[in-house]
Design brief:
- Helices cover about 35% and strands about 15% of the residues.
- Helix 7 packs across helix 8.
- The two termini are about 35 Å apart.
- The longest helix has 15 residues.
- It is α/β, with parallel strands linked by helices.
- A hairpin with a 2-residue loop joins strand 2 and strand 3.
- The protein is globular and about 60 Å long.
- Strands 1, 4, 10, 11 and 12 form a five-stranded mixed sheet that branches. A five-stranded mixed sheet has the order 7-6-8-5-9, with helices on one face.
């Protein structure tokens, strides 16, 4: 079953009836903490060693050295923009979606930009502040003290005044860029590639501040009824052609580097187009937790969830 948001995904796993879920980093640690998924035995996945080494022990699915899933695909949250509105020059900062301003086409960005409909968007604000208000001391956009968190919410309240729509459905966003006059938003390569394939004046960039991003992990339910089939699926999911074909369809980057040359659909330049060279620019989604290391207390995801709903509602 398809879940629209990470919260819906967690809810589905709470209901049960599923052996596997492909979860992004803003959901995976919640599933682990809630004991809804089980540790996997990587020895039962012959192709585990082909996974990008940077993903094998990633903190969004690895806890105390134990793996709770198999890396699937990853990608950046790019800044998608209309090339006509920006006169062909890529915006250099995320400020075009955070602060009211006149764009290169001479018009205000108010009502022409979008923001992601999900609490994890708070990390985008924190990532922006990390570069523009260094005095806040933000080192990780998923580990925010009360003062840092307040600053991120204040920025998001400012953003609300110019937002056309909070999006989470990729196809709705595509329609908004095509028919509703939206010219800039955080997005995924999927939307960018699809719009470009239709000849739309669309491009994307990762601005000077870097970007957040997602990395999906295939995780097994704690009470999976068909564990042998689940392991067989995880092994299948790591085959280079499968990985490459999925990347071609979604505009993502394979978790298995060999996939970059194993799929006709993806093509020779597909991995580069979808952002494989941008790994080090990305702060990957991760569930914010209260105990965030070094004796520091951070604002947990439960607060992110309720407070972001309030921001979107104008509070």
């Amino acid at each position: 079953k398809t879940a629209g948001t990470s919260d819906e995904m967690v809810a589905l796993m709470n209901e049960g009836g599923f052996d596997l879920v492909t979860a992004s980093g803003d959901a995976s640690l919640r599933l682990i903490a809630g004991k809804k998924v089980q540790e996997i035995n990587t020895a039962l996945i012959p192709s585990w060693g082909t996974v990008d080494e940077r993903l094998q022990g990633a903190p969004w699915h690895t806890v105390d050295g134990r793996h709770y899933g198999t890396p699937y695909q990853w990608g950046p949250n790019v800044l998608m923009y209309n090339t006509e509105a920006f006169k062909g020059a890529a915006p250099t900062s995320w400020n075009v979606v955070f602060a009211e301003q006149t764009l290169p086409d001479g018009k205000s960005n108010k009502g022409r930009v979008q923001a992601f409909d999900g609490p994890i968007h708070i990390a985008d604000a924190a990532n922006y502040l990390m570069h523009h208000q260094p005095e806040l001391g933000i080192k990780d956009p998923y580990e925010l003290t009360e003062d840092q968190y307040k600053a991120a919410l204040d920025l998001l309240r400012q953003q609300r005044a110019i937002v056309h729509r909070y999006w989470h459905d990729a196809f709705v966003q595509i329609d908004d860029f095509t028919n509703e006059g939206v010219v800039a938003s955080g997005s995924w390569p999927f939307q960018v590639n699809l719009l470009q394939s239709k000849g739309a004046p669309i491009a994307s960039t990762i601005p000077e501040e870097g970007a957040t991003g997602w990395a999906d992990t295939t995780m097994m339910h704690a009470n999976a009824e068909h564990p042998n089939c689940a392991y067989a699926w995880m092994e299948h999911s790591l085959q280079p052609k499968v990985q490459g074909d999925v990347a071609a369809w979604f505009g993502s980057v394979p978790a298995v580097p060999a996939a970059c040359t194993a799929s006709e659909l993806l093509g020779a330049e597909g991995c580069k187009t979808n952002g494989i060279e941008d790994f080090d620019k990305i702060s990957f989604w991760r569930t914010p937790v209260a105990e965030c290391g070094e004796g520091k207390t951070c604002v947990p995801y439960s607060r992110w969830s309720t407070d972001y709903v309030a921001v979107m509602g104008g509070r």
